[in-house]
Amino acid sequence: MLRSLSGLTTRGRCLLAAGVAAAVCAVVLNERDLLRVAVFVVALPLVVAGFIAASRVRIGASRRLLPDRVAAGWASEVELALWRNGKLPAGEVLLEDGVPYALGARPRFVVERLPHGRVVALRYPLQPMLRGIQQVGPLRATLTDPFGLCEFDRELIGHSRLVVVPRVVALWGLPNGAGIGAGEDGSVRLHAGQGETDVIVRHYRQGDDLRKVHWRSTARRDEIMVRVEERPWRGGTTVLLDHRAAAHHGTGPTASLEWAVSFAASVCLHVRKAGHRVRLVSEHGKVLADAPGDGGEGYDNVILDALAALQPAHQRDLTPGHDPAEGQELIAILGTVSNEAVGELARFRPRGIRSLAVLLDTPAFASGVSAPEQRAAATEESAALLRAAGWGVVIADPDTSMPQVWAELCRAAAGRNALIGGSR
User: Fold this and answer.
1) Where is the DUF58 domain (predicted)?
2) Are residues 218 and 247 in the same domain?
């Protein structure tokens, strides 16, 4: 009963107080008719409160997300269906759906009279600006009786999952020989012969051990070829995403981390569309997603879902301790990195395997000012160290479009291949 009384509105409480006052006056004045009115006035809000509290299954609802997976910056929509069970009358219904701040304003609806036997459809938009796994809900309803004397809050629907994936940008072209695991043309990847374990060969470079010369390939190509069987060929491309919080600047959709995530998603889907296997790893080599070159959109969703749920890491520096690509070609998307981290990353990468890097000018993402002459000295120094180690490097800022960065990266890969060929 106390719980029922807690749902009384201001009108119901005033009516109850007026009934009690009328009853006291009726007793003092010995007015039986006034006492009868007082009893009715007191009983009305109490009966209504008990009736509303007892009818717990009178309102039903459902929620549907259209769609339940959407890219950041694109619009989505929520469809609510509301109905009334039973033949009991229903008063005003106030609906409020729980929407995170990142998805927009919290919607509210007022249904004055919920009809019996008919579904009331309600819609409201969502405008997610940031990637992530968002929870929509719960949907709460405030039920009011037809007299406006009592109201109760009820949870009609729990949470619904909305996956906000990073924005994907269309890219064109591929580095020469992309996906073969080495910077040279795919023709250097030969087999040793029937019944012999596959052997990877490459052109002889000054300083190579002559005991590793593969004479059969040397005779076939009329050039000295050496074996590199200790690094078995693994086709495909590894995309390394540096998502350390300390390596990025800026907040919201314009943060350098969000740019890096979006570019990583675009590269992964573009390379996979070309038929190459794609491994997405963190800065420490942890596999975030592994998708073959064949297959439908389900594998694309695996990559996008992994990036949607990705949170900034708390490590201060990049310390892989091994080759994060495991013999594949590598495309690293890096924030601010120290010289020690650059040296360790380059140390574990063999020079015969293609290594590409996109270095983000992260201070420009925080200040909004990007100019080559104002780039951080650390970014330029890191780029110089990677280039000296044989990497193809492109520096990206917020004013450079992703297709332009990718085109420059392809040209950097071509230039690196030319250097390799000229050093033979």
Assistant:
1) 201-317
2) no
Residue pLDDT, tens place only, 213-230: 888 888 888 888 887 654
Q: At what angle do helices 32-54 and 10-29 cross, to 10 degrees?
A: 150
CA-CA-CA-CA dihedral for 27, 29, 35, 38, to nearest 10: -90
pLDDT at 76: 93
Whether residue 75 is found in the same domain as residue 131: yes
In the chain, the number of structural domains is 4
Cα(226)–Cα(204) distance, integer angstroms:
6
d(CA 19, CA 291): 73
Whether 165 contacts 70, CB under 8 Å: yes
Residues 6+ apart with CB under 8 A from 90: 58, 59, 84, 113, 114, 143, 146
- Which domain covers residue 122, as residue numbers? 59-165
Question: Is residue 198 predicted with pLDDT exceeding 70?
Answer: no
CA distances from 237 to 175, 282, 369, 409 (A): 11, 14, 33, 14
Q: Are strands 329-334 and 237-241 parallel, antiparallel or unpaired?
A: parallel
> DSSP letter string over 3-33?
HHHTTB-HHHHHHHHHHHHHHHHHHHHT-HH
Say whether both 375 and 290 belong to one domain: yes
Q: How far is CA 287 from the centre of its chain?
A: 16
Q: How far apart are CA 91 and CA 59, in angstroms?
A: 11
Distances, alpha carbon 185 to alpha carbons 131, 275, 352, 414, in Å: 38, 17, 11, 11
For 54, phi then psi, to 5°, come to -80, -30
Residue 357's beta-bridge partner residues?
Answer: 332, 393
C-beta separation of 268 from 239 below 8 A: yes
Q: What global pTM score does this model have?
A: 0.75
Q: Give pLDDT, residue 146.
A: 72
- Do the bridges between strand 69-71 and strand 59-66 make them parallel or antiparallel, or are there none, so unpaired? unpaired
- Report residue 370 as tokens: 């990007």
Mean pLDDT of the 52-57 span: 60
Same domain, yes or no: 114 and 253: no
User: Which is nearest to 333 in space by CA: 371, 295, 307?
Assistant: 307
Token readout for 129 is 């600006």
Query: Which pLDDT band holds residue 61 (cuts at 50, 70, 90)?
Result: very high
Residue 212 lies in a domain: yes
Task: Give yes or no: residues 316 and 251 share one domain.
Answer: yes
User: What is the pLDDT confidence band of residue 53, given thresholds at 50, 70 and 90?
Assistant: low
